[in-house]
Amino acid sequence: MVRVGVLALQGAFREHLLMLGSLGVESRKVTRSEHLADLDGLILPGGESTAMVRIASGTDLFARLRELMAAGLPVFGTCAGLILLADRLSDDSLGGYERLGGLDVTVARNAYGRQRDSFTAPIDVAGLSDPFQATFIRAPQILDAGPGTEVLAAHEGRAVLVRQNNVWGGSFHPELGQDLRIHAEFLHRLGVAV
Fold first, then answer.
1. What is the phi-psi region of residue 125: left when phi exceeds 0, alpha when psi lies from -120 to 50, beta otherwise?
2. Of 68, 158, 160, 164, which is most buried, counting CB atoms within 10 Å of its CB?
3. CA–CA separation, 92 vs 70, rounded Å?
4. 186: Cα within 13 Å, side-chain hemisphere
5. Is residue 147 within 8 Å of residue 185, measured between CB atoms?
6. CB within 8 A of 184, min separation 6: which ones?
7. Distance CA 90, CA 121 (A)
8. 170 has binding-site annotation
């Protein structure tokens, strides 16, 4: 059976765990490096990226995760998870704390506005026949993507879902709502038929 972890330092990890459960996938919370053992994939949830990097600082969690990503572990970062995976930020708003990197994109934090500016919009996602209702909450914006990064979905001409080899990143929260298709697409890459 495929086993997918969800980084559970802070944020919307419970919602991702529920989605994975709805798809019949074994999942578990990841808060320490030893929780990464025997995983087939990992989701980095939305939430507060500053809190996540501060909680992880002083541990070996990110160092071990970088090793596993380099070895091919599939990872999907949503909203704050995208910020953790981005190779570049438009500013140093995380105060120099260690991030993961591994996704050749430049990201601007909170670029879609404050909490009151949150919105849901239909997006066309590669591989899906019907639009996906994407929820953007204080969302990061992908400013640019390197040549090896595939854009899977865009909103108003700006990439919002990208993939580079085994690393996925999305500006929105696919775990909010009842539509399981984004999670199913990620799991399909793990060889899971859902």
1. beta
2. 160
3. 24
4. 34
5. no
6. 23, 194
7. 24
8. no
Active-site positions?
A: 79, 173, 175
Instruction: Identify the CA nearest to 62 among candidates 37, 96, 36, 26.
Output: 36
* First CA to last CA distance, the chain: 13
Question: What percent of the chain clears pLDDT 90, i.e. is strictly above it?
Answer: 75
Residue position matching structure tokens 């990226």? 49
Give the orientation angle of helix 181-189 with respect to helix 13-22, to 10 degrees: 80
Q: What distance in Å separates the CA atoms of residue 42 and residue 59, rounded to the nearest whole number?
A: 18
Contact between 164 and 103 under an 8 Å Cβ cutoff? The reply is yes
C-alpha 40/C-alpha 3 separation (Å) is 5
Residues 52, 90, 101, 178, CA torsion sign? positive
Q: Is 109 part of any known ligand binding site?
A: yes
49 belongs to an annotated ligand binding site: yes
Q: Tens of pLDDT along 136-168?
A: 988 899 999 999 999 999 999 999 999 999 999
Tens of pLDDT, residues 43-52: 999 988 888 9
Domains identified in the chain and CATH numbers: 3-189 (3.40.50.880)
